[in-house]
Write a sequence for this structure.
């Protein structure tokens, strides 16, 4: 059975040495974040996740969820664990005080999210999606919803979902067929089917609040094939009385089936049917056709803004799930490598009194583990920094700082979602490889990590979509202002430390990677307008360059800090020495990959687009011709 120990010391290092959060008393929620306070939160959360959630991870995988008489039953122990989770207040860390929450900043809530996901990703999806749903409802809902529904979601009495995907429609929302028709009482009647709905139904709470996107038909009752009539709705499982907040009758929302899926089996992934369901529109009215009869534009309603905010927060959360699965996988891979004996070290026996050496002596085993460990800790640093930016962009008293934080967080969100989940899956695979054949069987739990990790690359916008978003939208948004700000920060760090001989092993590779990144951006600027497929063909390579270089930047900063601590004789010397080795590994071994990414990026789209569509199934077509 796998084990897990939360990386409390690493989070404390990031909070108080790398980010120095206790100095940001100008931001709400930070004034009390002393080392004592954050240690108490981290250690308490770690204890709960290690002792309550982690033991249920394999249980959830083996039992899965079951649909019985129209109701989903979660695996043994999940309901009780959810009750303990809510009673302890772990679901309320970031919720506003007015709704019963602790109003802690996102740097704390995302840290706890990682710990929970490492312990049991399937379980933490229930409160995680509820948090996203009540945040959107608090931002866009009617006063009665904020009074009666949001507090119950914050307390854990009720849960929430995001209902976006349809059988024929994932990212391309204009193809959506779910419709919501206005009724005389101001509510809407919703009909349609949504799929892949995490937590769509379960037995852990009495009511579930579905946050749904749907189209409003035009005057002729038809659905337009564009985004102009797409809107955001609240659809409760049980209708809620706006006056009293009490549940009344069952709404027209039912579970068609639960998905039989590869991983995260403890999370109920449902097909949801909306049959004349009572729905409540969120935000302002949809934008109508222009006076000259021109094309309809995207809805600018507050409701849709809330939906996009919910999705962006979810993408950050999924990126952190990539870190989480990498962390727990590499912990177990390293423990096994220290215990498993096989063969002798290439330079001579390291354990001469035994018949074999532990496999940690082999360079390739160390490669697998160091690659994963350097990713996890570099990615954690970036995730915590961007989490800080979320708070800064909302609450900094400095307008310029707010603007910069918003630009950087928007630019880096697709990188965090896509690059982190790719590397998290790779980390899980690496650790399974360390186990050899024992990793492929269920006993050690490694194959579950691989299966669970795989969904992170798919949901909340597949990684190819995230890469295209980075290249086609985020790099060029606001005239490239965000990109220039990001480049400027890396340039400034390089210039500041180029003359430091001790920083040379970190600065020179970072500078090389950064130069390749700017070359890639320049190539795109010159070639994408000539052929938009060039942007598509280069997008994944560009995203990988972003991921490698940005983590290199994080590692170079941490290496500088570690060197300063060692020189001052401050803190745990072994901790800082370890950071230096991991930083050196990333910059020596991972940054050179940017050369290959850049070369592929500059190849353009010609070869990718050259084959005729039918040629992709040429053998099948030949067989059909013969028949």
């Amino acid at each position: 059975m796998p084990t897990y120990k939360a990386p409390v010391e690493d989070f404390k290092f990031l909070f108080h040495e790398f980010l120095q959060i206790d100095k940001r008393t100008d931001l709400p929620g930070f004034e009390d974040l002393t080392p004592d306070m954050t240690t108490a939160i981290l250690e308490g959360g770690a204890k709960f996740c290690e002792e309550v959630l982690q033991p249920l991870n394999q249980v959830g995988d083996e039992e899965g969820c079951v649909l019985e008489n129209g109701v989903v039953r979660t695996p043994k122990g999940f309901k009780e664990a959810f009750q303990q989770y809510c009673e302890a207040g772990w679901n309320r860390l970031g919720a506003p005080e007015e709704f019963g929450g602790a109003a802690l900043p996102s740097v704390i809530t995302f840290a706890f999210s990682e710990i929970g996901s490492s312990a049991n990703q399937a379980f933490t999806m229930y409160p995680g999606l509820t948090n996203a749903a009540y945040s959107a409802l608090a931002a866009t809902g009617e006063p009665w919803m904020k009074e009666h529904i949001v507090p119950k979601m914050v307390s854990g009495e009720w849960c929430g979902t995001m209902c976006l995907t349809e059988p024929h429609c994932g990212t391309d929302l204009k193809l959506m067929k779910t419709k919501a028709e206005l009724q005389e009482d101001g509510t809407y009647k919703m009909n349609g089917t949504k799929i892949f709905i995490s937590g769509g139904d379960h037995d852990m709470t009495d009511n579930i609040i579905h946050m749904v996107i749907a189209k409003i038909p035009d005057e002729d009752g038809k659905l337009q094939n564009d985004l102009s009539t797409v809107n955001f709705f609240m659809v409760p499982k049980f209708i809620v009385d706006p006056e009293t907040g009490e549940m009344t009758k069952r709404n027209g929302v039912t579970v068609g089936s639960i998905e039989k899926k590869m991983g995260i089996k403890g999370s109920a992934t449902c097909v949801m049917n909306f049959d004349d369901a009572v729905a409540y529109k969120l935000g302002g009215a949809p934008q109508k056709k222009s006076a000259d009869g021109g094309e309809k534009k995207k809805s600018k309603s507050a409701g849709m803004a809330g939906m996009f905010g919910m999705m962006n927060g979810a993408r950050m959360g999924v990126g952190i799930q990539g870190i989480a699965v990498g962390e727990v996988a590499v912990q177990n891979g390293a423990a096994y490598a220290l215990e498993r004996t096989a063969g002798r070290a290439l330079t001579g026996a390291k354990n001469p009194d035994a018949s074999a050496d532990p496999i940690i002596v082999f360079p390739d085993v160390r490669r697998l583990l160091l690659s994963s460990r350097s990713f996890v800790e570099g990615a954690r640093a970036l995730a915590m920094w961007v989490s800080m930016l979320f708070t800064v962009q909302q609450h900094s008293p400095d307008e310029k700082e707010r603007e910069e934080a918003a630009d950087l967080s928007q630019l880096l969100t697709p990188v965090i979602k896509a690059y982190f989940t790719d590397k998290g899956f790779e980390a899980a695979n690496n650790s399974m490889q360390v186990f050899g054949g024992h990793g492929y069987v269920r006993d050690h739990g490694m194959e579950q990590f691989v299966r669970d990790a795989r969904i992170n690359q798919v949901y909340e916008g597949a990684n190819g979509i995230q890469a295209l978003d980075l290249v086609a939208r985020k790099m060029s948004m606001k005239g490239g202002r965000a990109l220039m700000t990001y480049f400027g920060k890396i340039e400034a760090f390089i210039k500041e430390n180029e003359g430091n001989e001790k920083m040379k092993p970190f600065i020179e590779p970072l500078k090389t990677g950064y130069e390749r990144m700017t070359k890639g951006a320049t190539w795109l600027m010159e070639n994408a307008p000539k052929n938009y497929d060039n942007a598509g063909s280069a997008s994944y390579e560009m995203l990988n360059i972003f991921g490698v270089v940005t983590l290199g930047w994080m590692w170079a900063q941490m290496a500088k800090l570690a060197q300063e601590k060692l020189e001052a004789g401050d803190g745990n010397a072994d901790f800082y020495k370890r950071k230096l080795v991991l930083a050196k590994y990333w910059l020596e071994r991972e940054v050179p990959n940017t050369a290959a990414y850049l070369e592929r990026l500059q190849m353009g789209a010609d070869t990718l687009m050259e084959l005729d569509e039918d040629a992709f199934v040429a053998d099948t077509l030949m067989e059909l011709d013969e028949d």
About this structure: The two ends are 53 Å apart (CA to CA). The CA atoms of residues 18 and 557 lie 8 Å apart. The longest strand covers residues 269-281.
